[in-house]
Each structure stands twice: as C-alpha cells, then as structure tokens.
Amino acid sequence: MKADISELPMSTCDKPMPLGHCLAQWARNYGDRIALINETGQCLSYAQLHDRVEHIASGLHAAGLRAGDHAMVHMPNTFGFFYSFFALLRVGVIPVMAMPNQREQDIDALMALAQPTAYFIPDDVGEHDYLTLAQRMQARHESLRLVVMDGDVEHETRNVQILTALKGSACPWPEQDGRDTAVLLLSGGTTGMPKLIPRTHGDYFYNFTASARLCGFDREMVFLAVLPAAHNFTLASPGVLGTFQCGGTVVTSVSASCDEAMPLIEKYKVTHVALVPPLAKLWVEGREWEDSDLSSLKLIQVGGARLEAGLARQLVDVIGCKLQQVFGMAEGLLCYTRLDDPLNTIIQTQGRPLSPKDEVRIVDEDDHDVPEGQAGQLLTRGPYTIRGYFRAPVQNASSFTEDGFYRSGDLVRRDANGNLIVEGRIKEQINRCGEKISTAEIEEAISLLHGVHVAAAVGVPDELLGERICVFIKPEGSQTIDPLHIKTALREGGLSDYKVPDQIETIFEWPLTAAKKVDKRRLVAVALQRASVSPDAKSSSYLHESMTTNAPPFELAVKVAEVIRHETINYVLYERHGEWTLGLECAMRITVDSDGTVCRSDGNSWRSTSVSESIEQALADIPFDNWRAYGRAEFEFAYLTYGLENPHSAGPLLTIVIPKSEIRIRLGTVQLRTLDSAEMPQLVAIVEAAEKNGLPRVDSPIALDVRSTGSVQYRDIVASAVQDMRQGRYQKVILSRAVEIPSGVDMVASYYAGRKSNTPVRSFLLKDGEFQAYGFSPEIVVTVDAEGNVATQPLAGTRALTGAPEKDQQLRKELESDVKEIAEHAVSVKLAVQEMLQACQAESVVVDEFMTVQERGSVQHLASHVKGVLTPGASAWTAFEKLFPAVTASGIPKREALESINRHEGRARGLYSGCVLIAESDGSLDAALVLRSAYRDAGRASLQAGAGLVPHSTPEREWEETCEKLTSVGPYLISSKEH
Q1: Which residue, 175, 147, 5, is CA-closest to 75?
Q2: Cα 275 vs. chain centroid, distance in angstroms?
Q3: FRET partner for 372 with CA separation of 20 to 30 A, picked from 18, 277, 509, 736?
Q4: Is-contact 88 66, C-beta < 8 A?
C-alpha cells in the first residue's frame, strides 16, 4: 500500500526524526534519483524503494507484527536486506542486526536474548540452509512466530512467508520519540557472550547525519557496500544511511573480493567505500593483478580495527585516492580523521571525536586520568553513546562506570591536536619492570624487518621482570629467524631497550581462538614450555616444503603407501574431507594401559581420576610446534572408562603417535613436514617415486565366502542376547563375528581396491610393526573442532546396497518403515544426546539431522547427526571419553552392553569397533569408527562385522546383516605377492 508522502511532517536535514519516517522523507526529497544498485545491475529509485517498503510494511502489520516487537534480520547485502530493515522501522518493530556469517550457535544465543517475533532470512545460499535453521529456531524459541524469506518461490512450510509477497492494508504510523530504541546492533566484544546494543532513534539519526556532513557526503556520491550492511560501520558511520540522507547512490555487493568488487567500482563510478584493515591489505595486494579503473574513487574509509601506518601509506599510494581513518564502536563514540588533515595525521592517527559533546577520558588501571600523551584505557560518554547493553545487568556493571562512561577496552593515547592513536587492547600490553609496553608497537616494529611475515607479542610471567616480552615470528617463505639479528635490528631501528623482546620464537601455524584470532593465552603457555626445556632436549619445529602434483590425491596416497612399505616404515594414512594425510615413524608415543596409566615415551606418566584428564596432561607440553597426532583406540578401552573387568587385553588400549614426518596430499598439492631437516630430501624422493610408479595390481583377488562359517554359533548368541533384552537387562547390544582370511593379504592393494567401491565418511590404512589394518569408516565416533564444537553421528538400522537401483530403492523403503530398525535407531540417538550432555553445554546439544539414509559401500544405514559445544573446562578428550565406544559398536546402556559382549563373544575385539583418530595441537579431534575393515597381525588376517540387536531382532535377520556388512570388504581382498 503506497503511503501519501505529502501527509508526513516535513523535516530539515538536521532535525531528528524516528527512523521509520526517514525513507518517506528521502523519497520526497530525491524521488527518481537512484537509491540502490545491486551487482547484477538492477536499480531502484528512492520512490520505488519507498513504495516496495510500504507494501511489505503493510504485509508485516497484517501478519501481526506491532511496534515494540523485535525481529532478527540475518541477511547479506541484497535488496531484501534493505526492504526488511526499512519495513521493520516503518512498522515500529526493532530490527536485531545479525551478521550474515553467523551460524546456529550464535543465532540461537541471540534469539534467546532478544526473543524476536520474526526472523528474516535469505533464500538458501551455497551450503547454508537458512530455512532449516529458521525451523529449528522456531522449535526452540516460543516467541518466534514468523519467518520471512527473501526468495522467489513460495514455500509451503507453515509460518514461512515470502518477503516480496507480503500484502496488507495501509500500515498505521507508530507513535515514537527520539528516546525509544530503534535498532539492536551486535557488539563486537570478545567475552564470548552475545551482547546487543540498543540505539535510539535520536542517537542513531545523529550518528549517520553528523557523520555524513563531516565526511563530505553529497547527492553525487556512489557508496559501495562490501562489508555487511548489518554492521554499524557500513550501515551508519556514515555508510548506507548517511548516503541516503544526502541523496546519493548505494551499490550493494555480497562479495568483498577484488575480482568482484573492483569491477563494480569501474562500472558504477563508485566514489566512496568502507573497508576493514585485513580487506584493505587484500585490496592493496590485489592491485598487482586486478586492473579495473578505480579513478572514480574519492575516499576510502578504513575502520573496525587498528590500521597500521605502513598499510595506510600503501593504501594511499596504490589505490590513489584520499584515506580516512574511522575509529569507533557500535556502542557509540565515532572518531574520524578529517578530510583536510595533513597526510601524516591521516596515516599515523585514528582521528578525533565526531561530536564536540563527546567526552573522552584516558585512564590508568585505577581509573585515574593519565598525563597527556601517555597511553591508557579509553572511557567515553556522549550524546550518541549508550548507557547500557540490552538485558545485560552483569555486563553493564563491568562495562560502564558509575557516572556513565563506557569502558571501551581500547588502549589509546592522544596527540597535541586531540587525535587518538590506538595502541591496542587493554589486555594487549606487557608490564615489564613496571613499564607498560604495547604489544602492537612491538609487533609492528618486528613486522617491518626482512624475513618476517607476521609477529605476535605476549607477556610471559617472569620471576625477575614480572613479565618478559616474548615474540613469536612466522617467517617469510623459507627464511630463518635469528633472534640476535632481530634484537640488533630493532635497536638500530630506534626501539627502546626495554621494549626489545627478551624471548624470540619461530612459529609456523598460529593457535586460534573461537573468534579465529591468535590465541595469545596459548602462546604464553608455549613460551613457558620452550623456555623450560633443557638445551639437549630442545623444542622442535616442523620444517615445511610444498610440492605441486597432477595426480589424484587418493591414487597418490596409495602409491606413497606402496613405496614406503618396502622401507619398513611405520605409518598411518587417514582420509578426511578430500585430504589423505600420512604420519611417518614416531617422534613421541603416548599409550594408555589397561589400568588407566598414561605413559609417554620420554619416561613421563600420569594417572588421574579420569583417563581424559591424563591424556590432556600428556599432550599439554609436547615439545613440538603445531603437531598432528595419529592414534587408535581398541574396543577394550571402553572397559577401562566404564570401570569393568577387562579379561582380554593387557594393552595398550589407546596409542597416540606424534610422527617424525608427514605427507599431506590434497588436490594439486603435497605438503611435507618433518622434524629432521635431513629427512626432507627423502620425503621428496618418496613422493617423486610414487608419482612415477603404477598403482597396485588388483588382479589376484582372494576368494572368501563370508557365509561359510559361524552361522550356528552366531545365531545362538543372538538368540541369547535377545532373551536378555526381553527380560529387561538392556535395550540394545551389538554382537559381532570374525571371519578368517585363508591366505596372505596385500593390505595396500586391498585398501586401494576396496576404497574404490566404498563411500566412507573416513578411511584409513596403517602399519605398526607386524600389525596392519585398513578400513572404510561408515561414521564418526566424535569430532571436535578448535572452537569446541562437538559432533557425533550414530548409525543404526541397516539394509543391503546391491547396486541395482530398483532393488536398492525397495530396500530403502523397507528400511525406513521397519519398526525394529526405527526403534533401534531412535534409542541410539537418545543415548548419543545423553552422552553429549555430559561434555557439552546443555542448551547447545541438538539433533540437526534425524534418520536420513546414508549409503556406505554395500550397506545403507539410517543416520542421524548430533552436535553441541563443549562446556567450559572440557576438552576434546572429555567428549571422546563420554562418547567412546560409538553406540553403533556397543549397545544401550553401554555398561550392560559391554558385559554382554564380553560374555557372548568371549574374545578381544581389538581395533574392530574401536576407532582411528587424528588429534591436533589446536585442541581439535577427529575419531572414526572402525567397522568395515581388515586386520593382519603376526601372519593371521581376518574380517569382523556385527549387527545391532534389540528385543524385536531375529537371529536370521542379524546373521544376514553381518553378511551384508562383510561384503563391503570381503570381495576386494587382494592376495599378497609373497604367497
């Protein structure tokens, strides 16, 4: 419904108005001028934008949204974002501005805090299923009544409406004044808890109008929005709203990459753009190959983080237009360098406050003002700075002083002209002998030196100095870092002696926090550990070398394994996510014995109340940087964690190996890593030899009848276990049977032949002395990433996969409707959730995929996916201990199922139904269930498979299921050339 713009009260450019009235005012003032252009060239005038927003606002009002409600906007820089944002303001609904790159955990937490009535999402983009996410949010959050999708296709899903299809009668104007909350912005803080910033109509109107005047915006300008428009910098500093206030044009882009954004500058004669420092650096580098005409650019604004002076100068020189530094926060205060400032001021400072009424204090740790020119914490209050976060009383108590100043957390100093220079964050300073030293200053000085790619400085506890300065340096290419040379160069460059690092370390891969920033707390731990190592046990770093290859990764990995098996090298090959990675030989070994003792090959041992805690301690001070460990856990490890007698295996029950060398193979590249520089030529020779060699011959298959033996015995133990379950002793158990392989097996050739015919989630091939194994894992036991996100994938319910489409479809329908299989799967998922809750934050545990069908080689399974986030203080090994063994391998409850397995099978399972794993120094873990596998030890070779039993099971069906699973491996066994 188109509103009569003439009925609205007129406003001058300077007079504040409710933000919902702004678009109507702009449509009156600028009418047919172009307001928006997207990357496809579609244009909207101010009048057209206003007309469409009025239609949508009327539809939102008809759908029940009312002034004062909250609505989350989770959209990229498309027309749909602006339709949604302005329509919500028009109705009087408060937009909650989520970032496009935020995923379920963040959105869930923001939903819990803001309790929105509506959720605005884009049509699905790439791998991101926004509609499914929205449906999960509706299931969890009672307040969420409406989902609005920016798409062209009608969705039949209840409570989902299409943005541009919304209709209704004329929307009434809400009653608002300048003190009412207009928008909730997302805080950029680092506490880990979501914080929302309530900006009022009055303060936000001033935010973008005053900024636009200061920055020289006018109606002839064209602003390119490459950063998310939901961010305060892009939206209103002065950004999109400042451009509209002046009648200019906004060009939207969902990509900020040089090859997509720079052609838009040329095509639409863009005059203004806002960047963050990392993007500015990429744009500078991109001009080496991207040759779009950027001559229309008049101003590049850089903000969001501290801009180093060197990069600032490069930006001016390479792009060739004016630079303006912007320093501020979504909480309020904005500082700008002025357009007529001397170049040195623009390069070296972050500007001065926007408003003459902005109050800025620079204080010490006791909140006393520091002498002029010295660095301290920035406190601020002013006409557009908030007085408190939304629904955050605890955070407000620490973030605001009693007299209303906001504690920004920034470490700044002020020059004689009132410009602020950002030195870093409060926690990013080192107290050395009473001197407060900015880590940013040291990092910048070292980054300018030859051979240094990037540096990070930390304060390390020191008995003499209080804190000593430690710098970690990532070298440029193959450069070698000489600490003495670094110190000399810093002194010659004019750095004060007390700021010269006391400890300098080389690093090749950074430990990262959940926010993908360098984890300085972990760097402190590494610095302490390295300093404590004796000279003859010096900490080592992996040397790196890369090779290019045209060989398919799987085939090259197999050929490498073929080469190294003739060298009597122990190795583990592990496949995940398109990478085949080999760990070669052992630099350090960690084992878990049957009594729970964790031993390390350097003579240290640990025995704690929890095995996971002992493993963590053993891995805590590994004297190698950025290690990747390869491990395996026998099924009998479960008896230890559940406190049961283990009559079959004396151990070790779990083995973790830090390799001496690695070969990591991905499409087009091979990365070599080794602790011994003398080994690097050998690694190169191995890969080169593998590239020249042919693949293993697979023309000598072993004839193996998986139905020939064990039928009666297996059916008998199935019948016994079913009777147990019908008597209520447990709900589910997996009983297995082994099949001996009658002749010698070529493990590498068999792995190659079998992998070509299987579709595993992971695969592996390993050799440890006389023990060898390979397999095609149908599921993960647990994965934990560096940010603490945990996942497990219970499979339960099985039918054959024959390769005949009609037959397989029939079996799939049978599987999806079989009451026994569905019941078996449901109890497995329930247990997985219960176990995840023992390691994860309760509110984070969700079943995000339920009872889909996964095809794995000769079998199709019912599969679900459960995920969560580790509780504070828990590690990947906590989750491993709680989830091992996989429910697919044991039963429910696990303790009773383990006793049943022990009683009925009467032998050690070993690696079968245990796991193979990779663990990394960043705290991540990837453990794959060992099922579709072959084993060879001391001349004996075998296969093993089991079936999940529930009270409805029959011996005949479960026998058949083991046969189906054995055919994932059995037909692809290749005879060894030695036999």
Answers
A1: 147
A2: 23
A3: 277
A4: no
Cα maximum dimension of the chain: 95
Domain span(s) for CATH 3.30.300.30 in the chain: 429-532
d(CA 28, CA 86): 16
**Residue 931 neighbours by CB under 8 Å, 6+ apart:** 775, 777, 778, 888, 889, 912, 913, 945, 946, 965
CB 434 within 8 A of CB 466: yes
Instruction: List, as one string, the DSSP characters of 470-515.
Output: EEEEEESTTPPP-HHHHHHHHHHTT--GGGS-SEEEE-SS--B-TT
Cα–Cα distance for residue pair 578/670, rounded to 1 Å? 13
Is-contact 657 630, C-beta < 8 A? yes
Sort strands 859-869 and 795-800 into parallel, antiparallel or unpaired: antiparallel
- Candidate ranges 2-6, 512-516, 684-688; pick with highest mean pLDDT: 684-688
Closest CA to 922 of 608, 627, 537: 627
Backbone angles phi, psi at 606, to 5 degrees: -140, 145
CA–CA separation, 409 and 396 (whole Å): 13
pLDDT for residue 111 is more than 90? yes
Q: Which residues of 870-907 are buried (b: 16+ CB within 10 A; e: fewer)?
A: bbeebbbbbbbbbbbbbbbbbbbebbbbbbbbbebbee
Average pLDDT over residues 428-443: 78
To the question of pTM greater than 0.70 for the whole model, the response is: no
CATH superfamily placement of domain 429-532:
ANL, C-terminal domain (3.30.300.30)
**62 with 169: CB under 8 angstroms?**
yes
Over pLDDT 90: what percentage of the chain?
64
Going across the sheet that includes 452-462, the strands are 452-462, 466-475, 503-506
Query: Topology of domain 5-254, per CATH?
Result: Rossmann fold (3.40.50)
Residues of the chain with CATH 3.60.120.10: 711-972
Tokens for 559, please give them: 């050929």
Buried b (16+ CB within 10 A) or exposed e, 57-92: bbbbbebebebebbbbbbbbbbbbbbbbbbbbbbbb
Q: Is the pLDDT of residue 396 over 90?
A: yes
- Closest by CA to 741, choosing from 695, 704, 686, 694, is 704
Measured between alpha carbons, how far is 448 from 846 in angstroms, rounded to an integer? Answer: 47
| Burial classification of residue 466, based on how many CB atoms lie within 10 Å of its CB (0-12 exposed, 13-18 middle, 19 or more buried) | middle
Task: Say which residue, 606 or 568, is predicted with more confidence.
Answer: 606
* Torsion of the alpha carbons at 95, 101, 103 and 107, rounded to the nearest 10: -20
In the chain, CATH 3.40.50.12780 covers 5-254
pLDDT in tens, 403-428: 999 999 899 999 999 999 998 777 67
The residues, ordered by sequence, that sit 6+ positions from 834 with a Cβ below 8 Å of its Cβ are none
Burial (CB < 10 A; 0-12, 13-18, 19+), residue 296, is: middle
- Does a cis peptide bond (omega within 30 degrees of 0) precede residue 652? yes
Tokens coding 136: 């999960």
- Contact between 116 and 147 (Cβ < 8 Å): no
229/633 Cα distance (integer angstroms): 48
Residue reference for tokens 């030899």? 689
311 membership: H or E segment, kind and range: helix 309-319
Check residues 79 and 817 and name the one with the higher pLDDT: 79
Superfamily of domain 711-972: Anthranilate synthase (3.60.120.10)
Q: Are 931 and 913 in contact (CB under 8 A)?
A: yes
Q: What is the DSSP string of 63-77?
A: TT--TT-EEEE---S
Contact status, residue 948 vs residue 901, Cβ threshold 8 Å: no
Q: Indicate the range of 267-271, 289-293, 488-492 predicted with least confidence.
A: 488-492
* Encoded tokens for 613: 């805690």
